[in-house]
Specification:
By secondary structure, the chain is of the alpha/beta class. The protein folds into three domains: about 230 residues, Aldehyde Dehydrogenase, Chain A, domain 1; about 220 residues, Aldehyde Dehydrogenase, Chain A, domain 2, CATH 3.40.309.10; about 170 residues, Hotdog Thioesterase (Thiol Ester Dehydrase, Chain A, Roll), CATH 3.10.129. Helix content is about 30%, strand content about 25%. Helix 13 links the parallel strand 18 and strand 19. Helix 3 runs antiparallel to helix 6 and helix 4 runs parallel beside helix 5. It is globular, with a radius of gyration of 30 Å. The structure holds NADP nicotinamide-adenine-dinucleotide phosphate. The site of NADP nicotinamide-adenine-dinucleotide phosphate has 25 residues, from helix 7.
């Protein structure tokens, strides 16, 4: 096999391995297959390139343009994923494992692309919360906004997910408008490098948006400024070392860590042997122990079962794990491949020796197991191993030692509070799962264990067919955990995008706030529409453009006609005495829906024009009743515009219904689709 050169992509050029390069061995054969690293990599040039080329190019794009770019990138990688599968087998991963890493990574791009289009504005500023009013006349307001950080996001990843690990960080970063320097773990960097090459070849990314470091980062972290950030995934020791870098502390560089985690899974008291939940529990544990040969930060390290069922769980796991075919990850029948390296295997052997001081091995023998289609001694193979800890209250090592391989420890609990206490002994984990069919148990665990966990995964007979698995972080949900898990948070949809943006409190007059946020702010000077807004195209309409309609009187006949026509004869509209007894009404009043209908009748322009459809109405409030004899009129204002397709965009209108005294009686936001 020819040796792969894992090159860095720095300031627009590929830089081959050079002085200080490290060899990388195949997880399966132990042969050296690649070399990575170059001590003379110019990291300052990389930072400058991101600051001066990548950042400005990304910031010029709107959120929607960046979301479209992510979608196209996902499609491009999907078309080329076979190449990534082929190259990934050497990391010890099976085809099933590629589903998590490669397909999972691409899926993350798609989720962020779609969230970007649906949940972020078609602009450059993200508003946070509502306008705050400080003064009586509303001439001085407040609004929180997010804008992209003007530096670079440094992503340092662990070896176990060379593709997903990069893409789950890259998607929110690029969507935020921030360039990244990606540094994967050297052991599997050849896979990440291939993925980066594909992304750059696609031509979809602006130059400087993504750069890549193979091997060490030199003094990159010492050069970071207050506009840069570091997102780290790896061991707690490395996290501590890196977050203590002087420049990071001195410049308050944002540092997010996803580190070790002693995740637990709780078999609830109701999930007795013979129930669907018991079988489900055994299946989830077996899967978590064997997927990626247990090298998953979210894998179940501690199995917490009722004392009375510990034996039954061990027996069931023994039966299931016996079917695990270990061997050549590329072979079809293989259920579990190799660990990433013989070094990692040695580390796991050291860690199980520690576990062995407090727990007894009841399944699996590292010195005696079968490997199919590969050399057991040359590759980094291990069997699934289960430990039983008989005294989990006295034990400490089983709650703090992460054997990053196919290893888990089972322990018994007396009651649910005890189970929660044991789960929390991990001192902060990425995930705890609960297998139970009892909602009260779920509530007790959520309240008792929530503070110690980033995610709580609950599964039962109802959700098991569609559930995504204890170990799978989803781009929609946050991934991270307190304490030992690093104290970080990633993904979580738009929450993850905000990690790469600065929140700023803006204070000023309504016009200032409106100009910055590109959304109508009530109180800003009305901008009279030059023609009826329904006759103006999406492009022609301007934020703040307003019309005020004629008045219309609401008569008792209107109210009775509406009641008769719709069948809504609620007493407040029909019975004056009864309405008066109600604290809200002066007597019979118009239906709220009648007012909405009259409002539409007042502001709609009837002819065929750029308004294609009314697609909804948000935030409706009825503020004051309208008795018969009152008159209403409408103030209709363009609040926000969002491009949706190549043919039309969404216009959000601020609609205010006022009475004859100009007092507001109802307010809402109307959505229409308008042709460009
Ligand atoms: P690691 O040894 O801590 O390495 C993590 C990353 O840090 C690698 O890219 C490594 O690069 C880099 N690194 C190490 N020293 C550095 C330095 N001085 N400057 C800059 N970068 C440096 O962890 P690992 O062995 O790759 O991964 C296994 C660990 O990661 C496990 O403990 C696991 O729990 C954890 N993990 C956590 C999550 C999570 O989301 N919480 C996910 C996956 C894994 P080199 O490879 O070049 O040394």
């Amino acid at each position: 096999m020819t040796l792969m050169d894992v090159s860095s992509y720095a300031a627009g050029d590929w830089v081959k391995p050079g002085a200080g390069a490290r060899n990388i061995a195949s997880a399966v054969t132990g042969e050296v297959i690649a070399t990575a690293g170059n001590d003379s990599l110019d990291v300052q040039a990389m930072l400058d390139h991101a600051h001066t080329v990548g950042g400005p190019a990304l910031r010029k794009m709107t959120f929607h343009e960046r979301a479209k770019m992510l979608k196209a990138l996902g499609q491009y990688l999907s078309e080329h994923k076979q190449a990534l599968y082929d190259i990934s087998f050497a990391t010890g991963a099976t085809q099933g494992d590629h589903g998590f890493d490669i397909d999972g990574g691409i899926g993350t791009l798609f989720v962020f692309a779609s969230k970007g289009r649906r949940e972020l504005p078609d602009g450059h500023v993200l508003l946070d919360g509502d306008v705050e009013q400080f003064s009586r006349n509303g001439t001085f307001l407040g609004q929180h906004i997010y804008t992209p950080m003007r530096g670079v996001a440094v992503h340092i990843n662990a070896y176990n997910f060379p593709v997903w690990g990069m893409l789950e960080k890259l998607a929110p970063t690029l969507l935020a408008g921030v360039p990244a320097i990606v540094k994967p773990a050297t052991a599997t960097s050849y896979v990440t490098e291939h993925c980066v090459r594909l992304m750059l070849e696609s031509g979809l990314l602006p130059e400087g948006a993504v750069q890549f470091v193979a091997g060490g980062t030199g003094d990159l972290l010492d050069r970071l400024t207050c506009q840069d950030s570091v997102s780290f995934t790896g061991s707690a020791d490395t996290a501590l070392q890196l977050r203590s870098t002087r420049a990071i502390l001195a410049n308050a560089v944002r540092f997010t860590a996803e580190a070790d985690s002693l995740n637990a899974s709780i078999l609830a008291p109701d999930a007795e042997p013979g129930t669907p939940e018991f079988d489900l529990f055994v299946k989830e544990v077996q899967r978590e122990m064997t997927v990626k040969a247990g090298q998953k930060c979210t894998a179940i390290r501690r199995i917490i079962a009722p004392e009375t069922h510990v034996e039954a769980v061990i027996d069931a796991l023994r039966e299931r794990l016996a079917k695990t075919v270990i061997g050549d990850p590329a072979a079809e029948g293989t259920r579990m491949g190799a660990l990433v390296s013989t070094g990692q295997r040695a580390d796991v052997l050291d860690k199980i020796a520690v576990l062995g001081t407090e727990a007894e091995r009841v399944i699996g023998d590292p010195d005696n197991f079968e490997v199919v289609g590969a050399d057991r001694d040359k590759g980094a193979f291990l069997p699934p191993m289960l430990y039983h800890c008989a005294e989990p209250d006295r034990a400490t090592k089983v709650h703090e030692t992460e054997a990053f391989g196919p290893v888990s420890t089972i322990m018994g609990y007396r009651d649910l509070d005890h189970a929660i206490d044991l789960a929390n002994r991990g001192q902060g984990s990425l995930v705890v799962s609960l297998i139970s069919n009892d909602p009260a148990t779920a509530r007790q665990v959520a309240l008792g264990a929530g503070a110690y966990h980033g995610r709580i995964y609950i599964n039962n007979r109802t959700s098991m067919k569609e559930s995504t698995g204890h170990g799978a972080p989803l781009p929609h949900m946050i991934h991270g955990g307190p304490g030992r898990a690093g104290g970080g948070e990633e993904m979580g949809g738009v929450r993850g995008v905000k990690h790469f943006m600065q929140r700023t409190a803006i204070q000023g007059s309504p016009e200032m706030i409106q100009a910055i946020g590109q959304e109508f702010v009530p109180g800003s000077n009305p901008r009279p529409a030059p023609a009826h807004p329904f006759t103006r195209t999406f492009t022609e309409l301007e934020i703040g453009e307003t019309i005020t309609t004629e008045q219309r009187e609401v008569t008792l006949e209107d109210i009775e006609h509406f009641a008769d026509f719709t069948g809504d004869t609620f007493y407040a509209h029909m019975d004056d005495d009864a309405a008066k007894r109600n604290p809200f009404f002066p007597g019979r009043v118009a239906h709220g829906y009648l007012l909405l209908s009259f409002a539409a009748g007042l502001f709609v322009d009837p002819d065929e024009g750029p308004v294609l459809a009314n697609t909804g109405l948000d935030n409706l409030r009825f503020m004051q009743p309208v008795p018969a004899g009152d008159s209403i009129h409408v103030r209709l204002t363009v609040k926000k515009k969002t491009r949706r397709t190549d043919e039309y965009g969404e216009v959000r209108w601020h609609v205010m219904i006022l009475n004859q005294d100009d007092a507001p009686v109802a307010q809402y936001e109307l959505l229409t689709m308008n042709a460009y």
